[in-house]
Amino acid sequence: MTSNLPGQGSPARLIEARSIDWVPENERHGKLWHQGPLWFLGNFQYFSIPIGFIGPSMGLSLEWTILASVLGIGVGTVFMAFHASQGPTMGLPQMIQSRAQFGYRGVVVPLLATLFTYVAFNVADTVLLSEGLGSSFAWDPTLIAILATVAGAGLAIFGHDWLHKAFRILLYVSLPVMTILTIGVVSGGAGGSWDATQYDFTWPAFMAQFAACAAYNITYAPYVSDYSRYLPTSTPARSVISAVFFGASSSAIWLIALGAWLSIALGATDGLAGLQLAGNTIFAPLGDIAALLSALALTATMGMNAYGGALTVLTTIDSVRPIKPKTTARVVTILVLAVLWYLVASFINASSVATVFSALTLMLYILVPWTATNLVDFFVVRRGHYAIADLFTPNGIYGGWGWRGLTAFGIGLLSEIPFMVLPAIGDWSYIGPLAAALGDVDIAWLVGLATASIAYWLLSRSLDLNAEEAARRHSDEQLSAQNQK
Predict the structure, then answer these.
(1) Is residue 84 within 8 Å of residue 244, measured between CB atoms?
(2) What is the DSSP string of 416-484?
(3) Which residues have C-beta within 8 Å of that of residue 324, sequence separation ≥ 6?
(4) What is the residue extent of each domain of the chain?
(5) By three-state DSSP, how is residue 200 classified?
(6) Could you report the per-residue pLDDT of 113-128, keeping only the tens digit for each?
(7) Ramachandran quadrant class, 6 (left: phi over 0; alpha: psi -120 to 50; beta: rest)
(8) In angstroms, rounded to a whole number, what is the distance separating the alpha carbons of residues 463 and 275?
(9) What's this model's pTM, rounded to 2 decimal places?
(10) Domain 25-361: which CATH class?
């Protein structure tokens, strides 16, 4: 059996030593309270603000935009938070665990979809930072893109512990600034006015805002457990779920609602420029400080995406040809990804709203069938019981190709197509025939979620879970031996 279980790792290292391998109990130095600040700041940044522009850009009123955002974030964060609870249970990166559903080699299918998500996020982040800081401070967009790429890649290279530390520091600094700015907005100190007759309720606009917000936190699902896998196995699942849910949802709702106000009341078309204007109207240089801190937080989030992207690439390689990834492999992979997202971003010329909406919609369609399959397997079918050693070999109980997971994923993805409402990407857009019949209301991801979940549950009824028990006991013995090293 080829196994990545053995390895050297220590929380005292400057650069994280572990990669896609299993984290032994004696290295589980993570703390539960770190989860809340990490995911709060993960959404407490510039990318969240333009999401609030989507509804108003389609004529949706402030009240309806906020309601759609609260509901969408709530739904999306539920899936994200439940994935987070898998980290302490298994001590593995999220996508390694997916081999139980898709097979050792079959997992490459959702891996490629996930890798697209990481790259798309960092491409969009780079474009947003270049446009936002360029318009707000008249800085050179190319230089901004280079610096953001280098900073994000550097943070990812240092790894898990440093990402947690950087996020906590940025949160402590930015939280009071954004609190003062928000109080100023609510009290009227930021000015702003609008013609209420220009905004109303429409289902297409409401569902577009709802879907974008749901997508926002669902897209964290492929790597949320990457940041909880250092928590001790004894960490209560409910506590992890609660910490991640309230951390990720509260900050997202806060800034998306603020973004909706900036769009409607100030006519902002760029999140940073709107933030700067509102803050400086309250008192200068509040807006400048808020804009810079929001940009720094987004840069840190790029590091989070790069870290997860590197683990995804290494998992893909390992699924084709087993490897024992070292620190060097993770560092090189991050650097290659950084060059890739910078080059793609340099060729994109799109408004903030279009960039955000297009990226989130595509990522939602792709990731929903995977998240449905993974969660049904973990919480309903196998109920958290896995032979972890078998996840590192094509000859184990999960096999090379998991036909059940691949079939469910395919069914979910195909069922979405007639219901899709794809925003314009360049000169191309697509509205499915059933979506058109519904008045361009986008429910594609809900259809994909339901069909993939039901399909996997039905297909998994033929699994012989009793036969897996012997492999699980053997795996537990291997893990116990590893813990004692």
Answers:
(1) yes
(2) HGGG-EEEEETTEEEE-HHHHHTTS---HHHHHHHHHHHHHHHHGGG--HHHHHHHHHHHHHHHHHHHT
(3) 4, 7
(4) 25-361
(5) strand
(6) 888 888 888 988 898 8
(7) beta
(8) 53
(9) 0.84
(10) mainly alpha
